[in-house]
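Structure (tokenized):
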């Protein structure tokens, strides 16, 4: 029997939902969900991921760009980025293009 491959979150890229604005302020990412009246304050690494989301990159492209900025195990980085992206999707901060 053929094993099914686990698909990444998406191959087409991401964008912020219309009711979301974000800014990098000093070493933090600040996300405002206007409809939900929620504010998320994220660390610098998460803010860098948001920067690449804003550019419309897909998950693999985000991993590639993050490895240019941060050193470490690429496999672990990929997993952490995947988890973070899923959390952003679940919270309604971003959506697939």
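Design, position by position:
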């Amino acid at each position: 029997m053929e094993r099914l491959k686990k698909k990444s979150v998406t191959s087409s890229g991401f964008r912020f939902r219309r009711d979301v604005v974000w800014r990098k302020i000093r070493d933090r990412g600040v996300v405002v969900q206007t409809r939900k009246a929620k504010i998320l304050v994220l660390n610098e690494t998460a803010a860098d991921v948001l920067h690449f989301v804003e550019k419309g990159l897909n998950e693999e492209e985000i991993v590639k760009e993050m490895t240019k900025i941060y050193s470490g195990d690429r496999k672990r980085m990929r997993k952490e980025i995947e988890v973070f992206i899923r959390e952003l999707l679940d919270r309604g901060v971003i959506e697939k293009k």
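Reviewer-requested clarification: Strands lie at 14-16, 20-25, 28-33, 38-42, 94-96. The domain at 14-92 is CATH 3.90.930 (Outer Surface Protein A; domain 3).
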